[in-house]
Amino acid sequence: MDSYKILLSESEMPQEWYNIIPDLPAPLPPYLHPATGEPITPQDLAAIFPLELIQQEVSVERWIPIPDDVRRIYQLWRPSPLHRARNLEAALGTPARIYYKNESVSPAGSHKPNTAVAQAYYNRAAGIKRLATETGAGQWGSALALACNFFNLACTVYMVKVSYQQKPYRRSLMHIWGAEVYPSPTDRTNAGRHLRARDPETSGSLGMAISEAVEDAATHGDTNYSLGSVLNHVMLHQTIIGLETKKQLALAGEEPDILIGCVGGGSNFAGFCFPFVADKLRGKDIRFIGVEPTACPTLTKGSYTYDFGDTAGLTPLIMMYTLGHSFVPSGIHAGGLRYHGDAPLLCLLVHEKIIEARAYPQNPVFEAARLFAATEGIIPAPETAHAVKAAVDEARVCKETGKARCIVFNFSGHGHFDLTAYDAYLEGTLKDIEIEPDEMIKKALADLPRLPGK
Ligand SMILES: Cc1ncc(COP(=O)(O)O)c(C=O)c1O
Questions:
Q1: Mind listing the pLDDT tens digit for each residue in 91-138?
Q2: Which one of 102, 112, 372 would you pick to mutate in the ligand 1 pocket, going by the greatest count of ligand atoms within 8 A of its CB?
Q3: Contact 106 CB / ligand 1 (< 6 Å)
Q4: Are 408 and 260 spatial neighbours (Cβ–Cβ below 8 Å)?
Q5: Which atom of ligand 1 is nearest to the CA of 228?
């Protein structure tokens, strides 16, 4: 019988994460202190991160063991299945073989718990009592709430205001797992009060919510900050996705030609692709495609330069593609893709032309998501739907050229809490935002920080 799923047993789950830093084709530019323009030191980060995570951030070890307590929680849903999308292939009439790695099977419904569990573990081990974080669509906030629940940590989530209103049920998940949730910007922090005074009607953004969570952590001794994407240690924890996928493709007797993932801050894409990027750097012919919304086109229209990771300018400066830290994307439904920057590791690889990037407007993305739901059954998160759209487009190219490529994409999460977005699509009221950002990007890029002495 033709198989639809390639499964690994729990004992086949990887025991180490893969760190791409020693394999990079160029040195990774360091984080800089905004006041001095000098590389930051581990001590600069110690106010908001535990030592183990700071060490992982700069580690040059290729393999980093996954602690047993983290593996035991991973086992609740990992290894996740790799599916062959036979029904989608048939509907498209493509000679391509399409696979997707299903990260929607985690309790929170996305890939985010892969790093949330690791971060909660290391913070707990360091004696921390509470984690503060931001969340866009609520996927990250619910993942961290879940992880804090397992490790007996309190959890405070600053949720981007537009998502707080659009996605009340992710808020419910966070409450069930014991977190407190606030619509950001709030009046609980200096950063939030300042942002509200500047624009009382603001819909919020990830950059703003990060400012609030960082300030909360920096001003409370028992509290650390936790970031759901962008940083090196987050990419590291997510590599369990790609490492499992590699084993599963080998079981299916496949070599991937094209790997695809959506990009918000870059973590699901990186975690899925980095173990294969190592193969490309050793000469294998593989294409990697990162997909983002045209409403927040960081990789496709941003500048590769140093910028703050948040809106208020509290974080170190990060070398990355950025739309400018003051860029506030429109309230598209893929809330997790509304971030002005991207992971520095991913940006370096895009800059080095190892990884391609493309952007789509909302409506064609939802059209592809509906086709996927109709054929494969699972309803993609709006973020994930960006990867679905690119996979569908690549499969259509195969149909035109008659080339039977192996296309594999990361199914980063399900959309069960995003149904108002699907309603809007079905009613024809979703707006495609494409024109406006060019002006906004120009304006936000004019606000880039100037490096001291440069
Ligand atoms: C389902 C899903 N996919 C993708 C993303 C984008 O984040 P990242 O690029 O870090 O994977 C998010 C972010 O919230 C998400 O919820």
A1: 999 999 999 999 999 999 999 999 999 999 999 999 999 999 999 889
A2: 112
A3: no
A4: yes
A5: 10
238 touches ligand 1 (CB under 6 Å): no
Cα dist from 389 to 54, 88, 384, whole Å: 36, 12, 9
Do 293 and 436 form a contact (C-beta atoms < 8 A)? no
Tell me what pLDDT residue 206 has.
87
- Residue labelled with tokens 């294969």: 276
For residues 288 and 354, is the Cβ–Cβ distance under 8 A?
A: yes
Measured in angstroms, how far is the CA atom of residue 451 from the centroid of ligand 1? 30
Output the CA 35–ligand 1 centroid distance in Å: 31
pLDDT digits (tens, 9 = 90+) for 50-92: 999 999 999 999 999 999 999 999 999 999 999 999 999 999 9
Distance between Cα 2 and ligand 1 center (Å): 31
Nearest CA to ligand 1 atom 7: 264
353 token code pair: 């032309």
User: For ligand 1, atom 13, which residue shows the shortest CA distance?
Assistant: 336
Q: Which of 253, 255, 240, 436 is nearest to 328 (CA)?
A: 436
CB of 265 sitting under 6 A from ligand 1: yes
For the CA of 342, the nearest atom of ligand 1: 9
Bond into 95 cis (ω within 30): no
* Beta carbon of 415 within 6 Å of any ligand 1 atom: no
User: What pLDDT was estimated at residue 18?
Assistant: 98
